[in-house]
Amino acid sequence: MRAIIGAKLLAGKDAKAADKPFEIWDSRLSGFVLRIQPSGARSYYAQIARGKRVALGKVGELTPDEARERCEKVLGNVAHDRPPLHGLTGVVEGPTLGDFIEAHYKPWLSAEKPNSADRTLQRIKTCFGEWYSTLLTEITVERIERWRVDRLKSGIEPTTVLRDVMTLSGVLTRAVKLDKLAANPIRRIERPKIDRTPKVRYLDPGEEKRLREALRERDEEMRRARESANKWRKARKEEPLPPLPHYGDHLIPAVLISMNTGLRRGELLALRWANVDLKGKQITIEGSTAKSQQTRHIPLNAEALDVLQKWKEQASDDPRVIAINTGFKTAWAALLLRAKITSFRWHDLRHHFASRLVQAGVPLNTVRELLGHGSMVMTLRYAHLAPDQKAEAVAKLVQS
Q1: How is residue 102 annotated by DSSP?
Q2: Is the Cβ–Cβ distance between 252 and 219 less than 8 Å?
C-alpha cells in the first residue's frame, strides 16, 4: 500500500493492526516505510537496498515528519557512499534475516555441515521466507510464538513445527555469537509436547516375505527381458547388452543392504567401495557423509556380505556402491504395490533394521551405535519392542 505517512494516516483505520504484519510505503519519499505488527507496534524504516533496511524509530517516539527527515538523511548518506547512520544519533541499524543468512549463516553452514546445508537453507526459506526483509531485532518471542500457534492450528504435526522452529534457532544462535543479536528469542518459546516414543513402522514377517518375493519376481523379469533383448540384438548382429548374472539392477542390493545395516538413504548413496571391507566384513560410514558428522563402523552379516560380493562382481567401475544420481522413489513405489505393502517409506527400512535388533534382545546402546544416533533419545523409540520385562515385573505381584 502507498499513502502519505502522516498524522492523518496514523489516526485512520488503514494503519491499524491486522492479523499479519503489513507495510505502508510513503508516496512522497521513496524508501520511507511504516511497518505495522499484529501486536499494534508501529515502526518507521528506511529501505536502503533490496532486503536491507535501517530502523528509524517507533511511532510515538518520532512524529511522521521527524521520521521522514531521518529517512532523507539516511538515503542521502547511502547515495554519497557514506555509512547510512553518518551524522545521526538514536537510530538502530542491523541486518535483515535474509541479509544475515546470505552474508554469514550460509557460508558458515556450508563449511560446517556440507551434507545438510542445502536442505536446511531450503527449509528456512520455505518456512520463514516472508521474514527475510525483517530486521533480526524484529524477530521477537511474540512473533515466533504467533507463527508457531498458527502452524499448530492449521494441523501441522508438533514434531514438524518444532523442527522448523529449531532450524530458525540455528540462524539466530549464530547471529548472537557474531554480536548481531543480543539474545536468541526462541530460547523463551514454549515447545509443543511431543510423543518421544511414537509408533515405529517396520515390516511384520508376512510383509517382509512379500517384499522379498516381489524383489525376486522383479529381478527375474528384468533378467528375462535382458536375455530376450540380447537374442534380438544377436539376430541382427548388434553388440549385446552386458549380462545380469546376479541382479536386474541396483534395487535388490540397495534394499537388502539397508535392511541389514540400517543405513540412511543419503549414507547408502554416498557409500563407496573404498569404505567396504569384504575381508573384514564391515563397512565404514565416514563422518563427512553421516548426519551426526561422526564416523562409524557397521559389521556385515552373512546376507549383506553375500549381496555386496555379488554386486561388486556385477557393478560397473563406478567408485560408488549404488551408482545412481536420484533416489528410489519410482522403483520403490512400484515394488511396494507389487508386494501389497502400504504406508512404508524407504526410511522405514532403517526402522525395520533397528526393530529386529531390539526384538532379538540387542542392548539399546548397541543399536544406538549401529544407527549412528548422537544420543539415546532417538533410540528409545524402539525400547518397547524389547523382550517384555515389564509384563514379567507386574506378574510377580500375583505370584505366591
Answers
A1: I
A2: yes
Residue 292 has what DSSP assignment?
T
Q: Which residues pair with 46 in a beta bridge?
A: 32, 54
pLDDT at site 112: 86
Whether the pLDDT of residue 41 is over 70: the answer is: yes
Contact 50, 43 (CB under 8 A): no
Annotate 186-233 with DSSP letters as a single string. GGGSPPPP--SSPPPP---HHHHHHHHHHHHHHHHHHHHHHHHHHHHH
The DSSP letter of residue 31 is T
Residue 273 pLDDT more than 80? yes
Q: Which among 165, 116, 120, 48 has a CA at the least distance from the CA of 266?
A: 116
The 10s digit of each residue's pLDDT in 187-221 is: 888 776 665 556 788 999 999 999 999 999 999 99
| Sequence letter at residue 287 | G
Task: Say which residues have a Cβ less than 8 Å from residue 226's Cβ, sequence separation at least 6.
Answer: 241, 243, 244, 248
State the pTM of this model: 0.62
